[in-house]
Specification:
With 140 residues, the protein is an alpha/beta fold. It has a single domain, classed as Conserved hypothetical protein from pyrococcus furiosus pfu- 392566-001, ParB domain, CATH 3.90.1530. Helix content is 44%, strand content 14%. The protein is built from six helices and five strands, in the order E-E-H-E-E-H-E-H-H-H-H. It has a five-stranded mixed β-sheet with strand order 1-5-3-4-2. A hairpin with a 6-residue loop joins strand 3 and strand 4. The longest helix is centred in the last third of the chain and has 15 residues.
Length: 140
């Protein structure tokens, strides 16, 4: 796991609920980062990362001026994996409108031929499960 500068992460989504965003920023300023690590691809030699999960947390961490924990995958390796959907795994994860459940199903289908994707699968499952619940902020 890495601690990343959120300014070096390109997010998939924008803020949709300003009130929740503001609460998350305030919580991060007060308590630091208290959530799941995000999933990113890329980032070789200080370059930018493509955010696969955690857009809202990343944007809030930028505003709070704190680093964010991340699990990093190699973008070139993900781009070399064909999914049978007419796209590479990288395209599906970082550049497409697939929802979390679709991404989990696609990666799960690739596991028999690509067991190295187990960590990615597990991170996507955790993200999908967390997104089933309403977004809450821990103000401990």
């Amino acid at each position: 796991m890495y601690a990343l500068d959120p300014n070096k992460i390109e997010t998939l989504n924008e803020i949709t609920d300003q009130s929740k965003h503001d609460k998350l920023v305030d919580s991060m300023k007060k308590n630091g980062y208290n959530g799941r690590p995000i999933v990113v691809a890329g980032g070789h030699k200080g370059s930018y990362f493509d955010g696969i999960t955690g857009s809202h947390r990343t944007i809030a961490a930028r505003a709070a001026d704190i680093d964010i924990p991340a699990i990093r995958f190699d973008a070139e390796e993900l781009a070399a994996i064909e999914t049978g959907q007419g796209e590479t795994l990288f395209d599906i994860l970082a550049n497409s409108p697939y929802d979390d459940d679709d991404k989990v199903k696609i990666v799960k289908g690739l596991l028999p031929d690509h067991p190295e994707l187990q960590q990615l699968h597990d991170a996507l499952v955790a993200e999908a499960d967390a997104n089933l619940d309403d977004f809450t902020i821990n103000d401990n």
